[in-house]
Amino acid sequence: MESVRAGEANGKVSQRKTLLVVDDEPDIRESLRDALEDEGYRVAVARNGKEALEVLRTLEKPFAVILDIIMPVMSGAEFYAALQADALFADTPVLISTSDASRAPSGVLIMKKPIDLERFLDAVANLF
Amino acid sequence: MASLAARRTVSEASAAQRRPHDHAVQFYDDDDFLSASVATFVGAGLANGQAVVIIATGEHREAFRRALLRRGLDVDAACSSGQMVLRDARETLAAFLIDGTPDWELFQTQVGGLVAKAASRSKGEVRAYGEMVDLLWTDGRPQEAIVLEQFWNDLRGIHSFTLLCAYGMGNFSREADGPDFHKVCGLHSRALPAESYPREADLDVQLAEVSRLQQRARALEHEIERRKQAEEELRKSREELERQNKDLLRTVRFSEMFVGILGHDLRNPLSAITTAASLLMRRAETDKVARPATRILSSAGRMARMIDQLLDFTRIRLGQGLPLGRSANDLAEVCQTAADELDGDPRRIELHASGDTAGAWDGDRLLQLVSNLVGNALAHGARTAPVAVTVDGKRLEEVTLTVENAGAIPPEILHVIFEPFRSGKDRKEDQSSGLGLGLYISHEIVLAHSGSIEVRSTQEEGTRFTVRLPRG
């Protein structure tokens, strides 16, 4: 589990919104963390659904989740189901970033990998 | 006793003239034929004052009785006097079987007793007919039948009697029955053929019949050999097919693994590359950093498209087809999006739309189709004229898309243009041409929408792709 790291205070986001990036690929996790922190978000990361469920409980609202689907231990789909089943977190905004959209749960915003960063950041801004 | 018919069957003649103490077997197809044969054998004995023992099924006993009566023989009187003894085959058989196997001691007591009793009443001359062996054979117990035949032969060493057995020919109808048939014949002093043998006793006719049967046997042996060979070939081809099937299944499994690798394992690091390069672009303060980042992004984009194409290709080839998510779409809008997205001078694309251009199609797949057709026209068409994209929605049932450019496709490529991995001579010169899968996949997208795609290309008229899409 990795702790929340404060973003650069560049003032682009007035309220400290937090994003939890869940992806088993470290390069993707860290690149997204860098890009999101550049935009002024606070970013937390997790390597799979199980870790994400633990990190989630440490976050201050408002927060949203950037979710990969194919991951070891607990997949994105399993994590999403657990999130929906929990009254505390059921309304958490989720953006799915996956290489195989066919495995993603329905009714969720999906961005196919490899992602277009500009579009991704626009979509993230619209999550809140 | 009635006189024998002037023209007797061979079997009848043989049965009547049977040597003393012999053990004959009568093969038969038809019960009437058997009855006639048995009645002749038994009738001759009764007429000569010999004792007769018949061990047969109820049905046969009745048939024999009728046949003897027709010959003027008083069966009831013979039975009453003890000259003739009738026994049920199934019951008599059961009396000397132990665990389904004939027992010599019991056989000697049961059957030997019958024969001995009959012999005591008729100056020692006894004729016996039995069909318990036939029952055993029909029951699927040929080995027990052969044991019983041996018992009969052994019994003939103890008591003096003439014996006639009978077997239905249906017991020996398979080629594999040949050895058993020969074994049965070998256990008898004479084998009498079934009724298919000519009734005329004339030697020439018999010889001709034997020759005909020899020819038939030879032909059948040849046919059996031929069928064995055919079966062997069939077995080999079945094995070959099974082997090919296994290979195919293995290929399918590899392909599915390949799809997994392409879809997930390759896209993930590519996504990391794209994201990092995009971040670099955003952070770049000088061209010195932005330019190489752009190149990374451009190459990563090309790689992503190739992965998509390989995935589509593999799915199509695995027979999974292209999954379609149909929704309300406008082909003219799709063309506009494609034109906006394509690199290059936008003035080189002229878009014309007329009529109702809406339908229920997969929007992403249509965008892929139009981007491919227009992208090809921009890349390969002569720059002397713009690329004309026309969407015609004036027909009720379908919308037509045409993409036209100046310049011709070489004839040697034109006829294989929708084939996958086709190698054009410009393949090496133009690195952006990708894998040669674009038009193959475009064709599949159109087919998945139940539409059609065709191309015409001449130096004079240029190149025109025409796509007809049913509205869905």
Helices and strands in order:
The complex is a heterodimer of chains A (128) and B (472).
Chain A: E1 18-22, H1 26-38, E2 42-46, H2 49-56, E3 63-67, H3 76-85, E4 94-98, E5 109-112, H4 117-125
Parallel strand pairs in A: 1-2, 1-3, 3-4, 4-5
Chain B: H1 10-16, E1 23-28, H2 31-47, E2 51-56, H3 58-70, H4 75-81, E3 84-88, H5 89-95, E4 97-98, E5 101-102, H6 104-120, E6 126-130, H7 132-138, H8 142-158, E7 162-168, H9 178-186, E8 190-192, H10 203-283, H11 287-317, E9 327-330, H12 331-341, E10 349-355, E11 358-361, H13 363-380, E12 387-393, E13 398-405, H14 411-414, H15 438-448, E14 452-458, E15 462-470
Parallel strand pairs in B: 1-7, 1-8, 2-3, 2-6, 6-7, 10-12
Antiparallel strand pairs in B: 4-5, 9-11, 12-13, 13-15, 14-15
Helix pairs in contact in B: 1-2, 2-3, 7-8, 10-11, 11-15, 12-13, 13-15
Q: Could you characterize the architecture of this molecule?
A:
The complex is a heterodimer of chains A (128) and B (472). Chain A contains four helices and five strands, in the order E-H-E-H-E-H-E-E-H. Chain A has helices spanning 26-38, 49-56, 76-85, 117-125, and strands spanning 18-22, 42-46, 63-67, 94-98, 109-112. In chain A, helix 2 (49-56) runs parallel beside helix 3. The longest helix of chain A has 13 residues, at 26-38. Chain A starts with 17 loop residues before the first strand and ends with a helix. Helices cover 54% and strands 17% of the residues of chain B. Chain B is built from 15 helices and 15 strands. In chain B, the strands form four sheets. A six-stranded parallel β-sheet of chain B has the order 3-2-6-7-1-8, sandwiched between helices. A five-stranded mixed β-sheet of chain B has the order 10-12-13-15-14, with helices on one face. Chain B has a two-stranded antiparallel ribbon with strand order 4-5. In chain B, a hairpin with a 2-residue loop joins strand 4 and strand 5 (101-102). The N and C termini of chain B lie far apart (94 Å). The model of chain B is unreliable at 1-20 and 427-431 (pLDDT under 50). The interface between A and B is medium-sized, with 20 and 19 residues.
